[in-house]
Amino acid sequence: MVGGNLSPEMLQRAQLATEARGLEAEFVRLDMRDFDLGGRRFDTIMVAANSVLHLHSFDDFMDFFRCVVRHLLVNGRLIFDAFVPNIALLNREPGRRYPVGSIRHDPLGDVAVDESVSYDPITHINTQPGTGRPTERETSGMPPLDCG
């Protein structure tokens, strides 16, 4: 398994998490629009966590797909996810908490999971309720998505 990311910090976190679980993987610093893994080919390439949404132009997408094609085996597959904004979700009352469900956590018991949304339609950024500051996701080094 090979993992790639543009951020050295994210690669370090991935390496530490992998080692903590007793697993092995190779991690490579790369830009998904322009990478070459020396002729290596894979049966599956997966791009997680809406990362393709950081590609802002048609050329960015084309460069990404060209790299993927160069690295896929014949009949290989590309798997990615992309968040499609839901206007009803984005226009929820800012700061109000909405129940999502619950999970079972052995030491803690049942843990309720809820969310709140404070979305700015001009900047396309979710802010921390009541602060106007971007959430952690928007401050983690990823550029905001320009939907305009």
Report on the architecture of this protein.
With 148 residues, the chain is an alpha/beta fold. It folds into 2 domains: 79 residues, Rossmann fold (3-Layer(aba) Sandwich), CATH 3.40.50.150; 50 residues, no CATH class. The chain contains 3 helices and 8 strands; from the N terminus they run βαββαβαββββ. The strands form 4 sheets. The chain has a two-stranded parallel sheet with strand order 1-2. The C terminus is likely disordered.
Largest sheet geometry: 2 strands, parallel
The assigned CATH architecture of the largest domain is 3-Layer(aba) Sandwich
**Helix percentage:** 10-25%
Strand order of the largest sheet: 1-2
- Report the top-level CATH class of the largest domain: Alpha Beta
Low-pLDDT runs of 5+ residues are 134-148
Could you say which overall geometry the principal axes of the C-alpha atoms support?
extended
Question: What would you call the structural class?
Answer: alpha/beta
- Order of helix and strand elements from N to C terminus: EHEEHEHEEEE
